[in-house]
Write a structure and sequence with these properties.
The chain is α/β, with parallel strands linked by helices. The chain has one domain: Ribonuclease Z/Hydroxyacylglutathione hydrolase-like (Metallo-beta-lactamase, Chain A, 4-Layer Sandwich), CATH 3.60.15.10. Helices cover 21% and strands 29% of the residues. The chain contains eight helices and 14 strands. A seven-stranded mixed sheet has the order 6-5-4-3-2-1-14. A seven-stranded mixed sheet has the order 7-8-9-10-11-12-13. The longest helix is centred in the last third of the chain and has 11 residues. It is globular, with a radius of gyration of 18 Å. It binds zinc ion (ZN) (3 copies). One zinc ion binds next to loops.
């Protein structure tokens, strides 16, 4: 395959933690904020190049995210891991596959895809005739692979004790759920232009970097720009933006970054 040379756009589809922000029932400052940057769908990103549209994860707001960003089609999904906040919108791939009749490849580590198959058993073992199913194909990956001309590098990291993937493409890496990065994976993250990384809240967390941990990792990996994501309701965007060192910013839903492939 010819390699793609040109612009690649990354859009933050959701910058929120697993319950989203605002959190139903909560009236804390972030949950009652009128700043649109404090409204956070579940963590996900859109990558676009050369007319192709890929999403990283399909969370519960996948359909709303696709409508908001007016995404005309989905050519592939990259999964980070199988947690509910990253997979529960998968069934809404149906609208696209109804229109195209083509199946969408789902990439991820073998364990993640096995969990996805288990959670969506009805897709592979249809119990009734009729009713629409999404057309999808499970594509386990462990090594870098080429997708529509761009090299996609899976970056194995730890989310608590669960091995999950971040992904690197050109100068950007996206690691939404992480609490530790093994040394071999740090090598895959050298020389980044943009690092998008988990910073769930201020207090330490057993399965996510907190703000302090994410900032320390950014200072170690030294990307030109670091964007903090998977944010919970302890985080008020404007306040965190003021507190962060130069070159580190909080994500917001709809944030768009232009990259070189
Ligand atoms: Zn998550
Ligand atoms: Zn709240
Ligand atoms: Zn998770």
């Amino acid at each position: 395959m010819e390699s793609y040379q040109g612009e690649l756009t990354l859009t933050i589809l959701g910058s929120g933690t697993s319950v989203g922000v605002p959190m139903p029932g909560c009236s804390c400052p972030a949950c009652s904020s009128t700043d649109p940057r404090d409204s956070r769908y579940r963590a996900s990103a859109l990558l676009q190049w050369n007319g192709k549209n890929l999403v990283i994860d399909t969370g519960p707001e996948f359909r709303l995210q696709m409508l908001r960003e007016k995404v005309p089609g989905i050519d592939a999904v990259l999964y980070t891991h199988h947690h509910a906040d990253h997979i529960h919108g998968l069934d809404d791939l149906r609208s696209y596959t109804f229109l195209t009749g083509k199946s969408v490849p789902l990439y991820g580590q073998a364990d993640t895809l096995e969990w996805i198959r288990h959670h969506h058993d009805y897709i592979w073992n249809a119990v009734q005739k009729g009713g629409g199913l999404p057309l999808v194909e499970l594509c386990p990956v462990a090594q870098p692979f080429n997708l529509f001309g761009v090299d996609v590098i899976p970056v194995p990291v730890l989310h608590g004790i669960l091995p999950v993937f971040g992904y690197r493409f050109g100068g950007a890496a996206y690691i939404s759920d992480v609490s530790a990065i093994p040394v071999e994976s740090k090598r895959l993250l050298a020389g980044l232009e943009v690092l998008i990384i988990d910073a769930v809240r201020y207090r330490p967390h057993s399965t996510h970097f907190n703000v302090e941990g994410a900032v320390a990792m950014a200072q170690e990996l030294k990307p030109k720009l670091t964007i903090l994501t998977h944010l919970n309701h302890d985080i008020v965007h404007a306040k965190l933006a003021e507190e962060l060192p130069e070159g580190i910013v909080p994500a917001w839903d709809g944030m768009r970054i232009a990259l070189k492939a």
